[in-house]
Amino acid sequence: MLTSIADRSVIVTGGSRGIGRGVARVFAAKGAQVLVVSRDLAQAEATAAATRAEGGRASGFAADVSNPDEVERMAAAAVERHGGIDILCANAGVYPAARMMEMTLEQWNEVQSTNLAGAFLCVRACAPALATSGRGRIVLTSSITGPITGYPGWSHYAASKAGQLGFMRTAALELTPLGVTINALLPGNIRTEGLDELGEDYLANMAASVPQRRLGSVEDIAYAALFFASDEAGYITGQTLVIDGGQVLPESLMALQEAGG
To answer: Residue 157 catalytic?
Structure first.
């Protein structure tokens, strides 16, 4: 069993839906004080209200992680409401599909500013309070797409997620003297509202490519984040953890068939 995170101050960006919502609710269930951050205040507060209804402690906050001023206000709000910041789950991300040859520079920049620059801005804004904590933890939500795999229509997303890992490794060196760790989760296909919007055929095809023959749940990611945020993970920094049901292991669908999947 991991040391309790009860009463610790947690920020979850992109916390109103999908993986972020799952992370917020799991951390709150473990006794943490959670700031649920979304660009949409009503959605952030709805997730916070649902979390409180389950017995957790959470409040909503509106911030666009690509906006430095809003990110600074987010960090200040966590300090004001919780007395500091112990854990940052930098989860906010966008993934609008666009083929490379039709993609505009504006579309490319939109994804980089949220997924990559947003991670940097959140880490920079929260680092002083995380250092004061004495047990500061940062968990980035990257992806298998980009660092390990590719998918047509998501070259901008893949670049942003691979870029997060390059940022993380040097950030780990700079944060270590502050007593802060930073690690990244690489989810495979996780059943969220975003995936549901891609349709049942997509969901079925993706599940068929996973050795476990199912898509992951947001809780699968949340409990991995909980480990990286724990006292027990204090000697781990600059590392990645793939949570994909074995999706990246077979070299082809034939390999799955040969394995009896």
So the answer is: yes
